[in-house]
Each structure stands twice: as structure tokens, then as C-alpha cells.
């Protein structure tokens, strides 16, 4: 099934509520299966990682952005191009650390959490942890090791959702250390 | 049960009349005497009349998912009220039958009005001693307020009941419809919460705030 022709056109429209409900069903099923918030967070991160290592190819093909020169450019591309393309929102990039290796993405609205209210017995659940995994996996495929976590979450009562991203190191070309190993065309550094 | 007084106006001397007014004002009731000599005491409403007194959401199996009433009232009475209005709802649903099957939602409109009576024993004693000067004992029951109930049913057989205090201006149909629409929308949002299991009682903060905005402010 050739999908090359679709790459350059607009992504197919899908109902946002179906997406939100699907993600919600996923999280609640994980909660029922693991019954431990920390374990669920880890699983969401792993799932996000697997999505991210595949999504990066789609992103590079659709957006045709070139190689980023530094971390700041990476941050801008993530916020203005990637989030806009996949979630339809444009977070703002703020709170750069003095060394320039850490920044925050502030999301005013998070489409994954429409209609969601966390019950009291799941207070340590990071509901949108999948996003952290996606970002981590995608950046690992372009040879950047990052640490991603949520520092503020509207579901916990904060005003905005804030994702904190920290640059760890630039990686040598190698295969991803995820759950599944695929052969990939390595992009030279 | 509202009795007529057997004498002509003026009923009391000015002194006791003003005293009665004051006493009633303290209990939050207003006093009006009409020319037909029937004393009616209505609840002194100091708040916006466009508000509900009780809101209930009932599941298709006819048990309540959510009931909230103004706290100064007797809550159990409201539970009974809502329960009895379910009978009327069932009647209306079955009466509509196949003819209206294509209508998306059934706004049932006014279910039935009631007049509630409540006896205030401490006031009675005082009132009766006043009257005693003029004529024999009368038992006075005080017409407290009128309740009208409105119903709304969705296609999934979830019922919404709103009880309003209509002692002041009566609400227009449009306003009731818009209240129901807001309720239905926030109920849909509650259903979309993945942590909510259909059939549970509704414990959502967003839903609570919508309902509180519609309720009478407790004075």
C-alpha cells in the first residue's frame, strides 16, 4: 500500500474526541492492569518511545526541515512544527536554563486531557506521559539524548501544562535501545 | 387548608400587625394580606428568581446519579419529589410512543406544579394569640412556595429533573431549555471522562460547578 502520495498533502482529518477517548481508554486499561501509578507511568513512557522512533520518520518526511544547528532550534521546531502538525496546538518555549540545555514547553490546552478528571486514587499518575516518551524516542533517532518530564499538569490543579526537556548528550550513530530493534538508515552526524 | 379569616379588615390593631410583620421577617417570610382576607405568606426571596432549587440526574434504571438541592431545604423531601416526578416522566415517554421517535431529545416541559405547605408551630402560637382577641382559634398553614418541576429525557433514557421555585416570576420556557442543554452538555463531558464508569454517581468538579451556578444562592 503506497502512502507516498499522502505525505505531501494534509494529514487526514479525524475526530479529536475519538482520539481523546481512545487515549483515555488506553490509560484506564493500563491502570486496571497494573494497579500502580508508577508502573503505568513507565509503561506510557515506553509506549511513547516506540511511537516516537517511528513518528520521527513521518515528521521528517512531511515537514522537510533541515538539520537543526543547536538545541534552541530543536526546541523551536518541536514547538512550532511538530506539535502543530500532530496535536494542532502550539506550545510556547520558555524557561531556558543559563547553560542553554534545558527548556520548558508550556501548553495552554492539552487535547489528550479533554473531559478528563483524575480521581483521587490516581494522584501520582502522569496522564500524558506518552508525550514524554514520544519526544524522547523521536529525538533519540536524530542522535540527541534528552530527558523529558512533566513539571506542571492541569489535571493536578496547575494552570498550565509544562513539559521540561533537558539535553543530555549527543549520541553516536547506533541502533535504538528500545524494545524492538529495526534496521535504519543512519544519518551521518 | 389555608383558612379564611372571618372578620373584616383591619384584622389587628396596628401594633400587633407590625409585630407580626417583624416576626415573620426574622423567619425569612414575607407577609401579604389580600382583600379577600386570605393570608398568604411567601418565602421572602432575596435572590435571583431564575434559579433552580433542586437538580437531579437519573439513570435509565431509575436510580439517581446525582441529586443536589439548596441546603436550607429538607433534602429528603426533594428526593421524594424527584422520585414522584419519575412517574410522570415515564407516563410522558410512553404516551409519546412511536409518533415522536424521530425527535432527538425529549424536552418534557412542565411536569406538574405543587403547592407545598409547611406548618410553623412557633409562629402559629403567637399568631393565634393575636387572633384570639378577635375571634376563635384558627389553624393557619403557611403556603411556603410553589415548586414546579421540569423534565428532560435523552435518547439513552437518562433523565434530568429540575425543580424551581416559582413564587416569583415564572421562568420562560427558553430559559429552562437552555438550562437543560447546559446540563446535558456537562453530563456528556462527564461521560467522556475515561475514569468515569457509566452507572457511578457523578463526582466531577466541573459538573458540580455548572450545577451550583444554576442553583439558588443560599441566603
TrEMBL record, chain A:
Residue runs in coiled coils: none
UniProt main location, coarse: endoplasmic reticulum
One GO CC term, this protein: Golgi apparatus
InterPro entries: Bet3 (IPR016721), NO_sig/Golgi_transp_ligand-bd (IPR024096), TRAPP_component (IPR007194)
Biological process (GO), any one: Golgi vesicle transport
Keywords: Endoplasmic reticulum, ER-Golgi transport, Golgi apparatus, Lipoprotein, Palmitate, Transport
Annotated SUPFAM superfamilies: Ligand-binding domain in the NO signalling and Golgi transport (SSF111126)
Cell location: Endoplasmic reticulum; Golgi apparatus, cis-Golgi network
A Pfam family the protein falls into: TRAPP
Organism domain of life: Eukaryota
CDD domains per the UniProt record, alphabetical: TRAPPC3_bet3 (cd14942)
Known function: May play a role in vesicular transport from endoplasmic reticulum to Golgi.
Similarity field: Belongs to the TRAPP small subunits family. BET3 subfamily.
Listed name of the protein: Trafficking protein particle complex subunit
Species name: Oncorhynchus tshawytscha (Chinook salmon)
This protein's encoding gene: TRAPPC3
Automatic annotation (TrEMBL), chain B:
InterPro entries the record matches: Longin-like_dom_sf (IPR011012), Sedlin (IPR006722), TRAPPC2L (IPR044760)
Highest taxon above the source species: Eukaryota
Compartments (UniProt record): Cytoplasm, Perinuclear region
A Gene Ontology BP annotation from the UniProt entry: endoplasmic reticulum to Golgi vesicle-mediated transport
Any one annotated GO CC term: perinuclear region of cytoplasm
This protein's UniProt keywords: ER-Golgi transport, Transport
Transmembrane segments: none
Family: Belongs to the TRAPP small subunits family. Sedlin subfamily.
Protein's UniProt name: Trafficking protein particle complex subunit 2-like protein
Amino acid at each position: 500500500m503506497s502512502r507516498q502520495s499522502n505525505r505531501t498533502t494534509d494529514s487526514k482529518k479525524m475526530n479529536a474526541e475519538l482520539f481523546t477517548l481512545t487515549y483515555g481508554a488506553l490509560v484506564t486499561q493500563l491502570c486496571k492492569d497494573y494497579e500502580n501509578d508508577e508502573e503505568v507511568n513507565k509503561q506510557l513512557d515506553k509506549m511513547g518511545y516506540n511511537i516516537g522512533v517511528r513518528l520521527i520518520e513521518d515528521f521528517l518526511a512531511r515537514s522537510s526541515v533541515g538539520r537543526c544547528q543547536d538545541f534552541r532550534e530543536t526546541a523551536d521546531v518541536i514547538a512550532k512544527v511538530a506539535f502543530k502538525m500532530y496535536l494542532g496546538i502550539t506550545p510556547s518555549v520558555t524557561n531556558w536554563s543559563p547553560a542553554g540545555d534545558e527548556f520548558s514547553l508550556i501548553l495552554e490546552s492539552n487535547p489528550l486531557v479533554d473531559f478528563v478528571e483524575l480521581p483521587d486514587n490516581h494522584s501520582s499518575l502522569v496522564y500524558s506521559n506518552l508525550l514524554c516518551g514520544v519526544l524522547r524516542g523521536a529525538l533519540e533517532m536524530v542522535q540527541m539524548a534528552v530527558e523529558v518530564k512533566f513539571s506542571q499538569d492541569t489535571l493536578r490543579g496547575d494552570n498550565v501544562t509544562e513539559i521540561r526537556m533537558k539535553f543530555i548528550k549527543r549520541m553516536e550513530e547506533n541502533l535504538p535501545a528500545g524494545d524492538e530493534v529495526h534496521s535504519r538508515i543512519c544519518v551521518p552526524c | 387548608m389555608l383558612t379564611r379569616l372571618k372578620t373584616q379588615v383591619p384584622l389587628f390593631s396596628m401594633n400587633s400587625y407590625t409585630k407580626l410583620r417583624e416576626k415573620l421577617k426574622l423567619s425569612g417570610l414575607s407577609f401579604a394580606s389580600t382583600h379577600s382576607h386570605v393570608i398568604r405568606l411567601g418565602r421572602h426571596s432575596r435572590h435571583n428568581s431564575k434559579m433552580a432549587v433542586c437538580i437531579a440526574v437519573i439513570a435509565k434504571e431509575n436510580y439517581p446519579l446525582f441529586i443536589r438541592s439548596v441546603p436550607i431545604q429538607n433534602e429528603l423531601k426533594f428526593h421524594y419529589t424527584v422520585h414522584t416526578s419519575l412517574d410522570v416522566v415515564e407516563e410522558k415517554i410512553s404516551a409519546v410512543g412511536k409518533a415522536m421517535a424521530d425527535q432527538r431529545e425529549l424536552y418534557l416541559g412542565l411536569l406538574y406544579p405543587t403547592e407545598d405547605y409547611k406548618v410553623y408551630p412557633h409562629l402559629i402560637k403567637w399568631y393565634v394569640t393575636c387572633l384570639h382577641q378577635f375571634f376563635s382559634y384558627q389553624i393557619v398553614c403557611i403556603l411556603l412556595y410553589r415548586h414546579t418541576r421540569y423534565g428532560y429525557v435523552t435518547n439513552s433514557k437518562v433523565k434530568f429533573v429540575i425543580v424551581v421555585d416559582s413564587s416569583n416570576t415564572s421562568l420562560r420556557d427558553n430559559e429552562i431549555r437552555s438550562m437543560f442543554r447546559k446540563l446535558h452538555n456537562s453530563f456528556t463531558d462527564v461521560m467522556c471522562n475515561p475514569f468515569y464508569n457509566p452507572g457511578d454517581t457523578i463526582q466531577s468538579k466541573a459538573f458540580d460547578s455548572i450545577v451550583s451556578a444554576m442553583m439558588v444562592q443560599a441566603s
